[in-house]
Amino acid sequence: MRKRKFSIFIVLVLLFTLLYSQNPVKTKAATGSSLNEKVLTTTPIEAQFEPSEQTHWYKVMPTNEDVSKNTHFRIKLQSEQELNISVYSSLENALNDNTFDRYMGYTYSNEPAQIEFPLAWTGPYYIKVENYNSGLEEGESKEFEGEEGPDSPPIVNPVYTISYEGDTLAPSDSPIGDQCPAELGVLNRENGKGILKDLRMIRETLLANTDKGREFTSLYYKTAPFLGTKMIVNKALREDVYKNLVQLKGLFADLAENGDQSSYIIKTNEQQAINNLYKILQESVPGFLKKQIEQKAAEIGISNLTNSSLSSVIEKLDLKTSNDKEENRMIVKLKEGKPLSQFKTKVKAYGLRSINPLNVKQTNNHNLLVVEMNKTNQFKIAIKQIANLPEVEFVEPIQQYKALTADTQYKYQWSLHENEGNTGPDKINKDANIQFEKLQNLINGQLKDTVVAVVDTGVDHTLADLQDKVQSDQGYNFINRTNNIMDDNGHGTHVSGIIAASANNGYSMAGISPSAKILPVKVLDSSGSGDTEQIALGILYAADHGAKVINLSLGGPYSRTIEYALQYANKKNITVVAASGNDGFEEVSYPASSKYVIAVGSTNRLNVVSDFSNYGEGLDLVAPGSDIPSLVPNGNVTYASGTSMAAPHVSAVASLLLSQQPNLTPSEIQYLLTKTANDISFNEQDNPNGDFPGTPDQEYPQPTKEVVPGYDQVSGWGNLNAYSAFSAVALNANVDRLLNNQTKVTGTAINGSTVKVLDGDTELGEGKATASGTFTVNIPVQKSGKLLNVIISTKGVDNGPETTFRIAVEKAPEKPTVQPLSNIDEYLTGNAAPKLTVNIKDSSRKVIKTGNTDDSGAFKIKIDKQKGNTVLYVTVSDDQNRESSEVKVTVKDVILPNSPKVKPVSDRDEVIKGSSEANAQITAKVNGKVIGTSKADRTGAFEIKIKKQKAGYEIAITAKNAAGNSSKETKIKVIDKTPPATPKVNAVDDNSTVIKGKTEANANVSAKVNGKVIGTSKADKTGAFKIKIKKQKAYTIIAVTVKDATGNSSKETRITVIDKTPPATPKVNVVNDKSTAVRGKTEANATITIKVNNKTIGIGKANKHGNFFVGIKKQKAGTVLVIKAKDKAGNVSKGIKTTVKKSK
Which sequence spans correspond to the domains of the chain? Predict the structure, then answer.
């Protein structure tokens, strides 16, 4: 038999099983804008329906006092007849009959309807009381009156009393209201809890998430009073309902688990149970309702479902919630510059149905395309073909993602403050909250608004706590491609309330960030599901519409498209926060696992990580996520648990940091949040190995990962501390990395801040930030792995900022072993741990070269040749930039200094000057004996004091550097700069033709007269010399000099040519006996002597002309006068005799 599709029958069964839905019921809109309502006050009103009336309207106007004192209005309707009551949050919703299941109720058998309506809207609120006892619906013609059968109730004019009063309720995760017929049938029975659980799951999937399902829910509220009346008074009927529901237990369980994808086959006994329940339903309702039910039953053949499957009829009747169209759709990213037309042409051959850019509402497509194929069975082949096209960067199928919310429990808004007086099993750990109350002391001032995009199921912005916090006109709905961002699930509103609900306004609750503005981006449908395309578009849209923080409380499989969107947001300096997942698995879900995201796990009120919270590598921190109260669209503050609730705590604090300092980058936000988080790591003492009984040993053990101090994969870097993070920005605080080889804690803080370093309760050191905004605190060296608290505060300022950075002392790599390095080496070699970076630094610790150790730890790094005695420092660092202690390397000088350069040294010098290697020791030797030493200055210049050395001596000069290396000798000969002694010259007369004398051996001898050389010669080895000359006149001055081999000339020896030639015989004039003088001519200036008989009778001197006139006494005639001339040299001429004449 062909399997028949089935689902609508279950709706008919559920018409009297499902009472509470968190989703609004939308029916036909009322006409007009006036309801003719009456104002309802706290004074009860008693009223009665007239025969022509079916609806009464009331209006309640909450006052400021009502809002500040109460959380709810308890609205009570009492009547002996079956009446319906609905409460609406606004006139608009009343006109459109738009409210929530829990604000719809009914009276029956004098059982009142009581509705707890939250004061979550500004009001006024509207109340509708309906009477179906006439048997007619609103607007139904009386022509049906004749059709009333015996089962129809008599037409009555019901009397009722309506009232309300203020009420204060703690947040709750339990339905509020009376028991529904199904509960009356199964409650407190053996299988009751399981059946109700499955039925509610079916309600939340098939009914609550589709418009058609909500219509059935509305129909249920019309039938419920009549069903309830019969079941309360008829025990046998209750027993009958229970027995039939038990028969359907397996069907309910499968449908609850698999939803509209169930392939369950209806059995014969189940068909009988369906028939029985359908009959009970028919017999319990008025005629006009009976007609509607029978019409729906006929559409599916409710009595002929045996061997049918639960499948496509759900889709046919618009009850299908899953989305099948993703099965043949993919996202393709084209490479930059590749034309779309060329790609389209190629893809047509693979069965292309459509291709559209991934862009909506001013969001650029980023070369992303949504491609839909025709044949689903060839979809995988098409993906491979498209992926291989040269135009394609990547391709992936569209996948499904879900909101990450778990079951709800407990009470109180414990994540924001310690609830004093809370004792017993619900006691809250005082350290579990995020220090919200202390934070308030810091954020009283004006903060800049920061836009937080909640990419989720939408946000109900009509709630009083959110109406001024949500940018509803800026948001977008990527599910329906409209501007309607209203939340039809509740998840996004709950998340938004945690972030930004208005505080101190009397309504509901307090959000964390008063400066946050919510940008609602709806990417998840009413079931909390969304696909790759919608989520990626939502992220891109948020990035392009002013978001500074994006909250992603959702998860699913990895997607390159979403990863691209996250990268795009990161490049725009947007901080993205995501929930780690609720499976309790050792794997952070996506997109929290992306490197562009801050991954957040969940903690509970005991200040330990929630058991459902995903953990593992990549988890950044944890935040309160269990039993978190927040707003939902029905106005109540409801508990929810999940990492979905933890993520918005972090998003809210991130927005506060950005409101303080808008230029913070995502990485800086992540650093501040993680470094200021509180350590909550839990060491399991009872089971330290993490083994469980019965768990077999792993065949292949997992590789051991390095333990990062301060980080564990269960809680990341710790639990969020909003006060500490906010204070860190206010104080401009930061603490540098601390290694186990350091003795100083350094960082930044505003001038005057007090800085304390603690090891537990023990203070290791204290300091203050200086005017430069930096601090240094001296502490002892700490062991690696130790956690220190660095507390930075404005000491003495009440309620001032104080932040605690939790710093793990990290293990530095062991310092390297470095081989000696000389000034001729071109490689630095050594050993350290494998695969480390080797840093070579100069004397100022500036890195001049880097390299790496190989797999064995050895390294060999080419460097420039270094000067001798140069100081280098060598360290190694790992991939976390942790650096070892330094090894000091002094470059060994093995190069001999150059031979000194020496200036000439003469036999007259007492200093040897020259240049050599800077600071070298200079030594001068003669014949191996040191004659002087000195030290070159930093420029290399030197001076050696010595005694005068003989010309021709050889002096050997050497230089020795600091390393003890000696240069080769520089040998110089002492230059002869001493002139020879004045030569000794023998007398030379005017008859001489040789000048003889003695001087320095081998010297050249020269004789000059009036500067003109008259002769030269060379002294022999004894110094004797002979110079041949021409005869020189007497009294000629001859200058004799000698020049030695080096060219030194002696002083002149001047000799006068000795006059050895006697004067010529004088010529004498006649002398008579009367002469008293003798006249004549002789040699100039000669002395004339006149003798008679050898007796001198007169002496005189010739003048310069040689004329002489010598006076004598008169001589007798005949006397012989002998006249001689004597020159100045004493040479005497021959005498001339003249006889005195007789005068006449």
Answer: 1-19+179-322, 28-172, 325-398, 424-675, 731-808, 817-890, 901-973, 984-1056, 1067-1139
